[in-house]
Amino acid sequence: MSSLSAPLQRSLVAKDVLSTLRYEILTGELKEGEYLREVAISKRMDVSRGPVRRALQQLEAEGLVACEENGRTRVIGISDKDIDDIYELRLILEKKAISILQNKDIMDYAPILDSLNQLKLERDKGEECAPVKMAALGYDVHVAIMKCSGNKAIFNAWKSLSSILQLIMEINGNYVDEEWAFNSHKTLVDAIVQKRPDLEQVIEQHMLEDSKNIYLNELQVNGAHDG
């Protein structure tokens, strides 16, 4: 008998369905305009229709699908402009959080450095290094930065982007090597801790030219995005 309670099991199943569908939309596996059928999805994922229905409702709330009057669910997807808007907001929020960090008289950077060290340990595994794990740990570096600002409003606004940001990092992890991924985050953290004068440029390089553009370029190469 499973040690998990039935409600927790249902919650985990629903989360898996949601994560899978969101991933398929962001990678273009599920195309814009494609219709999603609960029965077909439940059979493909070997789950009941309940978790599928809840996942589709959440995706509708995120603007990735639309439920039409006839009850059919259509993929809206995510456009280049959507990604631009998400990263513009992310840039504003992270710049503000880092600015707050820089203006503190006493700042404990230990949580940020600890998260970077976890990323380094995963990188040091070499061939055993897992891209998905690197992506998750890279995301954790940003979580630590945002939390260290101590501004709950900024952190909560940033967290509202987390589901898509985490997936983009995971997708990017398939196209960059672990050394590059670690160095990109190390450059950012070093600039923050050292209060480098070019910090703003480093932030923009890390988020826009590195993270956002890798995602957009690879999807266009693979024919998943038309813009």
Automatic annotation (TrEMBL):
SMART domains: HTH_GNTR. The keyword Coiled coil does not apply. One of its GO terms (molecular function) is DNA binding. Pfam families: FCD, GntR. Keywords: DNA-binding, Transcription, Transcription regulation. Residues 11-78 form the HTH gntR-type domain. Gene3D superfamilies: GntR ligand-binding domain-like, Winged helix-like DNA-binding domain superfamily/Winged helix DNA-binding domain. It comes from the Bacteria. This is HTH gntR-type domain-containing protein. The lineage of its organism: Bacteria, Bacillati, Bacillota, Clostridia, Lachnospirales.
